[in-house]
Amino acid sequence: MKWTVIILNGPNKYLTLGTVQYEKYGERNQQHVIISDTWQQGFEQAQYQGFTHALFVRPGTVFRDWTEWCNLLHSYPHQGLIGHIIWHPNHRVHLDDQCWFMDLTQFDAVDFDTTIIQQPVPVRSEKNLHDDYTPLWIKPSQEIESFVGDNFGQGIIARHLNNKKSIVNWNNTARDIKHFEYSAGACRTWLQDYINLAESQLWVFNNEPIVIEPVDHLITPGSGLYWMLHKCHSDVKVIDIIDISHTQVEFCKRLQLDWDGNNYGQFVWDYIKQNNLIHYEMDRANLTPLERLYFKKQQYFVEYTNSFFKQLVQQSGITDFVSAWRNSKCQINISQGNLVEHTVPIGSRVWMSNILNYKYTLITTGYDTLLSYEKTNQ
């Protein structure tokens, strides 16, 4: 099947995006996403783009492990519609629009705003997932009923029942992977494994090109060589390093206080071993297991790191890095924090690296702050 994820525009859309477009521990995936202002609009966009299926997700829904969710979705037994079926006693059945999955070919756009409902009377499972209003499934009976719709999804349900198809609820396995949050900060507990990793990660190098900018005041994360090479440039007078990782912050401090500019590879190796670091990245994220095995050997690690360091220094135009590092008069201020939320002094230059396109930023930063940055960088 060719499928997409449709996320409704609004507060917490970044929170949801962070767990849809990134794997459990932050690796970017290739999941296609449509952001829409209404469910009907998203449905029409998905059909126009040639998708046959779609997962509709309200902003605030988070996924603990996107790969695990996709595997479940591909094996989930259904006849074209899965969702949170809500059927309170003495009320009509409807869908919670938090999250549902549909075969787009079985529905029409008008199903989203149908008010006069005519459908087979639904029959529900005897068992519930929890309480008394979450049937495992519903299916059509032979009796027909008509009523005025008063809740979400009733037109969608009617279409499916009229097609003589059953509708299934999300099971407990799905609910263990998927969760709904009402604010970005609340997800920290549920996604704490990833957050802990991000806040303890060490980046030995940057994974994007470095361009030296002759500015007076630079604000930057502490990852890799970006700030180090700028420290050696005579035009830069002040550098504020602000990084989410306490490990990166401490590493920057150690470089600033203890490193003489020689043998970067050995300095990094010693720091990793002295602090028993597990989570560190080289010149690119997500090394293969075999590549990581090579980096466990001291000689290979040091030689590779020094070789790549030398290459980057040469590309930056610095002819004598050791002298430039030792003689630099640049003021360095280092602190832990989210750079997106940092107040930028007038006249300073901010280098954002990949921060605006980073799972940690998306799931922990306030909606208004991210929206402001998104508008600024359009």
List SSEs in N-to-C order. Answer: EHEHEEHEEEEHEHEHEEHEHHEHHHEEHH
Number of helices: 14
What general outline do the C-alpha atoms trace? elongated
The tally of beta strands, per DSSP, is 16
- Number of domains as seen in the coordinates: 2
Q: Note the gap between the termini.
A: 33 Å
Average pLDDT, rounded to a whole number, is: 93
Kindly estimate the percentage of residues that lie in beta strands according to DSSP.
Answer: 15-25%
- Work out the radius of gyration: 26 Å
Descriptive keywords:
eight-stranded mixed β-sheet, 22% strand, 16 strands, 378 residues, alpha/beta, four-stranded parallel β-sheet
Task: Report on the architecture of this protein.
This protein is an alpha/beta fold. It folds into 2 domains: 181 residues; 184 residues, no CATH class. It contains 14 helices and 16 strands. The strands form 4 sheets. It has an 8-stranded mixed sheet, with helices on both faces. Strands 15-13-12-16 form a 4-stranded parallel sheet. Strands 4-10 form a two-stranded antiparallel ribbon. The longest helix has 19 residues. The mean pLDDT is 93.
